[in-house]
Design a protein that fits this description.
Number of helices: 4
Order of helices and strands: HEEEEEEEEHEHH
Helix content: 10-25%
Distance between the termini: 128 Å
CATH architecture of the largest domain: Sandwich
Strand order of the largest sheet: 8-7-1-4-9
Strand content: 25-35%
Radius of gyration: 41 Å
Number of domains: 2
CATH class of the largest domain: Mainly Beta
Structural class: alpha+beta
Largest sheet: 5 strands, mixed
Length: 224
């Protein structure tokens, strides 16, 4: 019996430490060109019932957010200012839907209330003062474990800092034109061999002919 009590105490302490590891609520400001939407879960006690331990999945425009939310937890979404449909589903069966027209720079509080009479739950929008007071008692959903990455196009993400020194600007590439090969033509109709050789020599002096080309041309002239 004593050993059972020790085990029960250890389990209770473990549960308390797990709850205590939750990241407490931290107020945010909407990102630029976004609406900040808080979703948080509270629970009410019905007579003879215990606090609900069920979790809820959240959908944004029918796209499921991978993290779940439980009683005493909250989530924060920076969403595009547009008409949005958000829903909370309990046990993958019961769903409550809210349709919102989000405005940039505004903050919205959406509350999940579980364990109501008849086993029902509510998903509703509440005023800023009431929502701020209630959400301050919650902790970040999933913060005690690694959260999976979520890809929802309705999210507005922080802009990355521009690092000019990391930007490689494209420089125009100079196109090298092929070298023009000049082939000297020496007319032999009215020139003597000496004249032809002299003309070839002048071309060599101007750099048009190389020494080797000059010698070859000279040999050809003399062989005529």
């Amino acid at each position: 019996m004593k050993n059972i009590k020790i085990v029960l105490i250890a389990v209770i302490m473990l549960l308390l430490s797990a709850c205590g590891s939750k990241t407490p609520f931290s107020a945010q400001q909407p990102l630029e060109n976004s609406a900040l939407v808080y979703v948080y879960a509270t629970s009410v006690m019905s007579s003879g019932e215990s606090t609900s331990s069920k979790d809820f999945s959240i959908r944004i425009n029918n796209k499921r957010y991978l993290e779940r939310i439980k009683s005493g937890e909250y989530m924060a979404f920076n969403l595009k200012p547009d008409s949005m449909t958000l829903s909370a589903t309990r046990s993958q069966i019961e769903e409550q839907v809210l349709k919102l027209s989000l405005q940039a720079g505004q903050t919205y509080y959406l509350r999940i209330k579980d364990n109501l009479e008849g086993g029902k739950f509510e998903f509703e929008q509440v005023g800023a003062s009431e929502g701020a007071k209630e959400i301050a008692k919650t902790g970040l959903a999933g913060s005690s474990e690694e959260s999976p990455e979520n890809i929802i196009t309705e999210f507005v993400n922080p802009k990355e800092d521009k690092k000019e020194d990391m930007i490689v600007k494209e420089q125009p590439v100079a196109v090298q034109q092929p070298a023009t090969v000049i082939t000297p033509t020496v007319s032999t109709k009215s020139l003597s061999k000496s004249d032809e050789i002299e003309k070839a020599y002048n071309l060599k002096q101007k750099g048009i002919l190389s020494e080797e080309e000059y010698k070859n041309l000279k040999t050809e002239i003399l062989a005529k």
